[in-house]
Amino acid sequence: MSEWSHGEENNFYRQLPKVELHAHLNGSVSSETIDKLIARKPHLNIQHSMTAIRSGQRRTLDECFQVFKVIHQLVDTEEDILMVAKDVIKEFADDGVKYLELRSTPRAEPKTGLTKKRYVETIIGAIQQCKQEGVDIEVRFLVAIDRRNGSEVAMEMVKLAEDFMLSSDGVVVGLDLSGDPTVGHGRDLLPALQKAKSCGLKLALHLSEVSSQAEESELLLDLPPDRIGHGTFLHPEVGGTCSLVEKVRKNNIPLELCLTSNVKGQTVPSYDKHHFLYWYNLGHPCVICTDDKGVFCTDLSQEYQLVASTFDLSREAMWDLSQKAIGCSFAPQSVKKRLEQTWAELRPQVLQTRVP
Ligand SMILES: CNc1ncnc2c1ncn2[C@@H]1O[C@H](COP(=O)(O)O)[C@@H](O)[C@H]1O
Ligand SMILES: [Zn+2]
After folding, report:
1. pTM > 0.80: yes or no
2. Among the atoms of ligand 1, which is closest to the Cα of residue 265?
3. What's the CA gap between 150 and 145, in Å, rounded?
4. Ligand 1: residue whose CA is nearest its atom 3
5. For 9-26, what is each residue's pLDDT tens digit?
6. Which of 101, 136, 198, 230 is most solvent-facing, going by the fewest CB within 10 Å?
7. What kind of architecture, by CATH, is found in domain 17-352?
8. How far apart are CA 200 and CA 15, in angstroms?
9. Where would I find the Adenosine deaminase domain in this sequence (predicted)?
């Protein structure tokens, strides 16, 4: 047990400088922003209970994907996307996140004239505006491929990401593969992912989020990806294989781990059974992330605190986790170096203060 009071613990994790590498834009919308969206679109008759999974509640993964559909109805114009992206970036900054990699699936909305290209441009615009306003956070963007949409759209997203990688002043750094893991097969997306890799885009892939994906993970790990989202069922204790674990370890591929998301989405039975422990005990790079802070009603400070209390880790160990996450980011060396400096400057004050 910790010798610190609850208030002190909260305060410490908020002060801790953090890196967020796995955040889906529309899953990260806070209840305050949802209020503003509902006010813009009262005719949709959407209530808060439809856009978030509260403390103690559980949903099947399938039900989680229904929640995203509701949020997508609320976020369907350029103005909405700009507001949502700026709010999300500022909320992460307020939570002590110094570097954020946001990801989102470009959507065309014929009714409002939104195109996939404008979708990405609007998010890049939000990132630039936050920078101009002096928000204390460095932000990069990953174009997401929704696996449900098949190989053709995947290839279209790779082209879009490549164009933006070359024209966005370094804001677009890679691709995400996400969406309902029970739909589609990674084999069909392999050519698009290979192309992305060959043109210099970084790959963050959701792998083995459910137990039926071993064969797909086997295939996609040969790319290899630069980071893995979840990887819940990779290891043999939960039905994965030694071969999968070996591939991950051989290439030292960091795992993005999202405790609240996995427990609320019921792919992990309880916090203490989370696969964080398996990989952490191997000394493998693990990055704590939120996944969908709005939908799962969490933030990155809470996720760090949850990991520390569940696995009885010291503040120093948690500091090391947050610092090592810098190295797992897709930021260029110059940015990583600056972040390392920030961590070095903050360390004495954050690790020693006892603020009530
Ligand atoms: C809970 N675990 C998860 N597993 C897989 N994909 C997920 C996810 N959580 C979110 N997404 C992906 O992110 C989209 C919402 O944000 P954007 O509209 O892209 O910003 C979802 O529609 C899904 O494709
Ligand atoms: Zn995710």
Report:
1. yes
2. 1
3. 9
4. 179
5. 899 999 999 999 999 999
6. 198
7. Alpha-Beta Barrel (3.20)
8. 35
9. 17-340
